[in-house]
UniProtKB/TrEMBL annotation:
It catalyses: hydrogen sulfide + 3 NADP(+) + 3 H2O = sulfite + 3 NADPH + 4 H(+). Keywords: 4Fe-4S, Amino-acid biosynthesis, Cysteine biosynthesis, Heme, Iron, Iron-sulfur, Metal-binding, NADP, Oxidoreductase. This is assimilatory sulfite reductase (NADPH). GO terms for cellular component: sulfite reductase complex (NADPH). GO terms for biological process: cysteine biosynthetic process; sulfate assimilation. Belongs to the nitrite and sulfite reductase 4Fe-4S domain family. Its EC number is 1.8.1.2. The lineage of its organism: Eukaryota, Fungi, Dikarya, Basidiomycota, Agaricomycotina. InterPro entries: CysI (IPR011786), Flavdoxin-like (IPR001094), Flavodoxin/NO_synth (IPR008254), Flavoprotein-like_sf (IPR029039), NiRdtase/SiRdtase_haem-b_fer (IPR005117), Nit/Sulf_reduc_fer-like_dom_sf (IPR036136), NO2/SO3_Rdtase_4Fe4S_dom (IPR006067), NO2/SO3_Rdtase_4Fe4S_prot (IPR045169). It is an enzyme of class 1 (oxidoreductase). Pathway: Sulfur metabolism; hydrogen sulfide biosynthesis; hydrogen sulfide from sulfite (NADPH route): step 1/1. It comes from Antrodiella citrinella. Residues 683-835 form the Flavodoxin-like domain.
Amino acid sequence: MSVASVARIAFISSDVVVDSQPSLPATSPFAETYQDISRRGVHDATLVNVPFGADPGSTLLRNRSSRLQSYTTTSSPSLLNRLILHLSELASSPLVLHIAVEDDLSDVLVLRSIVPFFLYSRNAQEAHDHALLASRLSLTEGKVVLHAFKITDSPHSEVSDDVVRTFLSVEKLSKVDGLNGHANGHSHEEDPLLAAYESALLSTVSLLRRPLHPLSHHGSAGGHIAIFVLGSVPPLDIDGVSFVHLSLLSPLPAKAILSSISPSVTRILLVEQLRQWQIKWTPVYLDLLSILQHSSEVQRPTLHSCFVGNGDSVTAVDVLKLVQEAASTSPSKRLTLGHSDDVLAISAPRPHVPKHESAYIKLLNQLFGDRLEISNSPSLVSSEGALATSPEFAIGRVRGDIEARLELVAAIGDLLADLNITSELHSLLSQWLAVKDDPAKGPKLGDEIVTLIQSDHVFKGAAARIVALRSYFATQSRWIIGSDAWSYDVGASGLHHAIASCLNVNILVLDTIPYSSRNTVDATRRKQDVGLYAMNHGDVYVASVAVYSSYSQVLQALVEADRFEGPSVVLAYLPYLTDDAPALEVLKETKLAVDAGYWPLYRWNPSKEREGKDPFVLDSDMIKNELQRFLDRQNHLSQLVRSQPQLATELVSSLGDTLKEARRRRAQEAYAELLTAIDAPPLKVLFASDAGGAEKVARRLALRGKLRGLSTDAAPMDSITLDELAKEQFVVFVTSVAGQGEFPQNGRTLYKALNASVARGEKPLAQVQFSVFGMGDSHYWPRPEDAHYYNKSGKDLNARLEQVGAQRIVDLGLGNDQDADGPETGYKAWEPLIWKALGVDAVELTEAEPEPITNEHIKVASQYLRGTIKEGLEDSSTAALAPSDTQLTKFHGIYQQDDRDIRDERQAQGVEPAYSFMIRVRMPGGVCTPKQWLLINQIADEHGNGTFKITTRQTFQFHGVIKRHLKSAIQDINRALLDTLAACGDVNRNVIVSAIPTLSKTHAQAYAFAKRVSEHLLPRTSAYHEIWLDKKLVAGDAVHDVEPLYGEFYLPRKFKVAVVVPPNNDVDVFANDLGFIAIVDESGDLVGFNVTAGGGMGVTHGNKKTYPRLGSILGFCSVDQAIDIAEKVVLVQRDNGNRADRKNARLKYTIDRMGLDEFKTEVERRLGYTFQPERPYTFDRNIDDFGWHIGTDGKHHFTCFIENGRIQDEPGSNFKTGLKELATALKDGKGNFRMTANQHLLVTDIDTEDLPVVKSLLAKYKLDNLSQSALRLSSSACVAFPTCGLAMAESERYLPILVDKVEKICEKNGLRNDSIVMRMTGCPNGCARPYVAEIAFVGKAPGAYAMLLGGGYYGQRLNKIYRDSVTEPEILAILEPMIKHYATARFEGEHFGDFVVRVGYISATAEGKDWWDRVGGEGEWKEDGITA
Ligand code: SF4
């Protein structure tokens, strides 16, 4: 066989043989021969095996031989392309590359131009003979000879081992002088390489005594066609056709070629055995063309390029067809001999890297920079073939690299031992050994070493090895990246080899199956837990991460994996089904998976065990409560727990307490039920309610039932199963409606069960008698085509119940927000029918109906905001607080929330929502020191979700703080000399102040005033200190607390104060309950304020009793009077605000109800003096002044753009880390931070000498990037999903995506730099002040928004509803022509909000009370169906 024959000669002729290993399970075809020869003791060569995927070039360089080195391999694009890099360095070495080829010379031909000699053997005899020739040639010339040979077992004869040895012994290596010195008699004075070949050829032929030619021909002489063949095509006899087989491809024997072409030949066909050639022409074709060009013949034959795939199957007919085709085709067209399917002249496709996956690649790049080596990067495919992405390939590469580095270290040791080297070189070598793993110092010293060696021309021995290995001076972070497909067969995927290799390599396995598709994707195949598999290997670092769940944990895991000495496996979750899956989907799926325990976050670091530490860290907090379910599902962690029994004990025992407590409660409830059910007919009241309205109605109904002697209770619909429901006798349902007719969240499961029952045609509720009351808003979706959404859930439920056999006792009742008395109008008519149907309508009520519990009751009963918060914090059976306490914690700056992305999922699992808390800091004017910033940053990491947000009230808020972290978080905030008291609740909230970077003096005065207002309006209760800071009560009892300003009822609703410094209305002063417009004298000193009152944003969709309102100016006051005025305005509101209806309780409604004049008179009466007349002022904008500014005090201030205020690290923009570094640099009094009410951030008070440091840090983290469009710079969004309980649609997560699209429209119309104020909120509460924006979107249902237009550019005019419900395509369809119209028809300097009013898209809103008038556009832009 040709391979064995070549292997024998290679081994005997060489003192070093390097053999490349194919991918497992295959073994090298040369290996058997090598072992055989070694066993026989025929020759003692050093055999070096190169792992599959490793770079053979560097191995050849490291193992250079002074005599002859041979390299053997089968043709593989990955290997050969890697060889290219080193061949120029090896060109002058005695080296023979024997490359076995099946039937495609594409890869091997790529090397032709780099090697001086290239031989091709098409059968076993040639292979044997050329192997001898190649060795002889390389030995005599000291140059590389490439010998490509066909893998074949054609018959041949061989010379003996001894003959080979003798033929190639040094003594016999004189060049032979033949005929004129050359085998064929031609003179080659002009080509020494050819001469050298001829010489070696002659020696070989003399030995073998059989012909061996650079080219051989057969076929008919005198014909018109000559076919030159490179490859294996059987000898065919065809009239008029001569064949020339090429064996010497480099140097190409020009004269021999020309003389082989008979003068009668008019057409030459060059047939090359190439299947996957990637460029148009082949090098042999071009060389042949050149040879023909230089021929002296007048009539030069035409040259055609042809490919052949399977040459052995070519027949005479194929050849004739080819000849015919050539005759009728232009020579520029490539032809195919034989089956064209055999030839795929295309490039190897480069695998597509899905865009989501780049998130992890970016992280790796970010962490390891130049050190990063992705050993199976898809980018290698184009150069190294499809196998380049396989783990075997990668592990081979890594192994080769590691060996090369070890070799470098050894060479450095050898050189250090050399007494002849200079002291400078000695010192550098020693230094490198000391810091070789330092990513910065190692490569730098390496460069210096190489430069020194090269300058000294010390190029022998160890020095030469060092230079050859110079690319290994830097320590690499080596990563192999794989897909979850590897998890289906860990053993066979190559992953096993990587894990078991003990090499210092990191493996990142991406799992992309979305949680919700986990049962449908690859349902027939079972995934293995790669993490557990790896952990069972012992010394392997394992981490399970999810970039969209915990960014910092991913960073931690990647760094730990890199540092771990040995294999590391990082399992990374990235759920998506298609490449264009929106990021939001990925985010939600990640949350579901992490929260449900499907994808736990953990890190397993065996090196910690050696240090006596716990090797296992569970990073997903929320999972602990759900462990039991988690174990049942046999997911990742359940198996993990089995391997760590103490973990199971710890977690399951805490779960046990929870279960015991839950069982105890359930038993108590059952007992109470038993007692009440003894002598009265039962009535079950079930509700489905998102916002609490339907729940209130249901609970009131149950209460009234009890008063009539019925055994009633009210519960969410989903608290009961269909089977349990079937056992009830009388059931009344009260349901509201969510989004576009969907069922409220806590009724969906039962509703689905009803639907399923209907689908199966079952009638399980035959014994149940029922009635339904639905609550909705007939104008929520005002378009006629949307009318069916009105009360849809109530109507659907009413129908389903009947379909499953239940008997209706009272017809469906409908409550409509639009009725005079709201839903009560319909309810009042429906409720009596229920009592009548149950026969208790005539029951005389002896007890007064208890008043429903409202916020006012909760406040007054709270003992000055204490409630049972303290007890609730200690209750470990739930992650939530009592509902009444959640109203009170708002006064302490704390909102209970739950992760709405996973609400459904948790409900399906039967567990409580994923409760956590939002904490808002009180920080008047949004000013904080760098030290405070650092603490805030730390608190977010230690207690929250690792991010924090700058809010529209110029402060920070943290999300995701779980109950057991609440107290320590507040205490840490307190340690930062900040608090959260009154950041929310029915009190004055954080006082906001214009950020004004330029007017330093005025800012200082306005800020000082804001702090005084904030302090003055602060609640005086000691509950905050008692609950959160463990401070004892001053007088020993809560009742001794007094609230001189608020009283025990506090205010009817929230209260907001803003201080603004014209001309920038960046705080939207008119959107606040109370506003102070600073009036300054010529020297910039504050002299007083124009006072505004009655601004407010909150609205309820469709409820025309609610509206946004701008503050009205009451008049001017001096600075000294202002605090007093603030207090009196608060008092008037406290005493006159509507406490019966929270929707109508803000100061704006109080003022409109009282009348502005009467309100002002009342304030003045309490003041004892009147307001002075309003002073002139001018506003010109309400957006931030981005970039650098110098204040009047000479200090420098920079306003950064922080999109929607979120401080977090993201791939490509590590703002959180950057700001932390900036705060560290400034912490010794070198600057401050200042939030803006537009959710951006100022770095302030920078001295000129500190500017370079600040600027470089801003630049390093791209915080100085202000290249965004003016639209983006002017946009803002509230938080909304997933944390805000009121959100009806996305906001913070969606607005940036919408801006991407709208800014394209702006750019197309030349408006990239024209600011349009665009805001979005997830509900009509209006936290991002949408009602003064030029364009606003207010969430109505997922993906649906009310669209508003026409707000004033500097917050001076309210906008108005333009479209009641729009989706993204509609938004873009509306804005595209409108923005174009604006670009072409606006007046000079006219803002968008003014334009849409002027040209009539929308009418101007003169005051809050007319906000609902003329909604829906004007004239041609009027939308049909929108209700005024
Ligand atoms: S506007 Fe609504 S959705 Fe947005 S944060 Fe405020 S309450 Fe939540």
